[in-house]
Amino acid sequence: MKANGKLIIHGGTPLKGAVRLGGAKNASFKLMIAALLCPQEVRLLNFSRIADVDLTKRIITSLGAKVHSAGERTLFIAAPSLKSSRVPRKLGTASRASALFVAPLLVRSGRAIVPLPGGDRIGQRPLGRHLDGLKALGADIKIKGNLLYASCPKLTGATYTFAKNSHTGTETMIMASVLAAGKTTLKNAALEPEIDDLIEFLNQMGAKIKRKPHRVIEITGVAKLSSAIHQVMPDRNEAVSYALAALVTRGDVVLENARQKDLSAFLAKLKAAGGKFEVGKYGLRFYSQGPLKAVDVTTSPHPGFMTDWQPLWSVLATQSQGKSKIVETVFTSRFQFAADLKRMGAQIEFFDPKPKQPDKFYNFNLKDDLPGNLHGMEITGPTKLTGTKVAVTDIRAGATLALAGLAASGTTVLTDTHHLDRGYENFAGRLVKLGAKIS
């Protein structure tokens, strides 16, 4: 798929076959950034060929490190020294990962100048959780003209408690602490599998990171990190995308190397909805057998139902019997795709969940919410979807509308499909190999 390209989807064909999952998007580029902490060459295996990886590669190269591929899905990264501590504005603003560069740049050169991150338009990404943590380690932080300036000759271990769970905030603090002086204790840290993948990678290089009960992570600073070889974990968002594509088309698809432990919340909801799956040494199989029934879903940080799965699940809800309630608690504006689903025939009504303790119920900062935002929607099914022309606004919205097009009658045209390239490797091509009619 080319930038600003389009996909023409002819719906109504059950998908059958197998897909081998690539490396997780939400782990891949972060492992690349973490590799900058080591002056020796590291090897990372099982990369997906996605745009976010290419963008991160360009940023790393601009800083003076060397990145090259030698073999299939493998990246070699060597950063014996960094010639720059500044992420180029054009590259940084295009990436939601730019703030993660602050940690390795601070550690390696004592300073960092990083553009504030861009990426998907699904709501504010609260950088305060990152920056307050870095300040606790001794960093001086300033923001001027859409640029983040950080400096500290030597970070020092500290105890820091996250006010709310933060996936990337936890990763930032881990990277900042592995070479800091002394011990760092992170409380109310995030539990996502991608974070465990990062911890495993850093520990292989000689870091001393331990998970403790009750969302605590302890990091004892070491003097240096050494070379390591690490395989990127499989992408759980990709797994859910193809699993639901199989179910909404009444198909049968095997996901090679999918890991049950990464998908427990999704599989529990799927079982309740009557969706069929099998677990084997090969991975997971998803297949259609009998009607689906409505199930209520509320997103939350891991081990809860992932926010990235919510838009995709909404397509399944349109094909399920009854009323499904979906509540989004992680991002302020993640229902942007719903208007297009309604145009395709989905019966969707929005509502306000009205929790008794909003600040505890929602994982986003309440001050970042927009007036009039509703964070719940009720979907009545089963509904016959009809193809139409829609524009993609972000990665998961694009995959969601593609799934709706596969389940719909007639033709669906997706424009601005470059968003899909950021998180999926050859999404349309892989669907075609499963029998989808896409041009």
UniProtKB/TrEMBL annotation:
It holds the Pfam family EPSP_synthase. Pathway: Cell wall biogenesis; peptidoglycan biosynthesis. Keywords: Cell cycle, Cell division, Cell shape, Cell wall biogenesis/degradation, Cytoplasm, Peptidoglycan synthesis, Transferase. InterPro entries: Enolpyruvate_Tfrase_dom (IPR001986), Enolpyruvate_Tfrase_sf (IPR036968), MurA_subfamily (IPR050068), RNA3'P_cycl/enolpyr_Trfase_a/b (IPR013792), UDP_GlcNAc_COvinyl_MurA (IPR005750). Its EC number is 2.5.1.7. Gene3D superfamilies: Enolpyruvate transferase domain. One of its GO terms (biological process) is UDP-N-acetylgalactosamine biosynthetic process. CDD domains: UdpNAET. Belongs to the EPSP synthase family. MurA subfamily. NCBIfam families: murA (TIGR01072), PRK09369.1 (NF006873). This is UDP-N-acetylglucosamine 1-carboxyvinyltransferase. It comes from Candidatus Beckwithbacteria bacterium GW2011_GWB1_47_15.
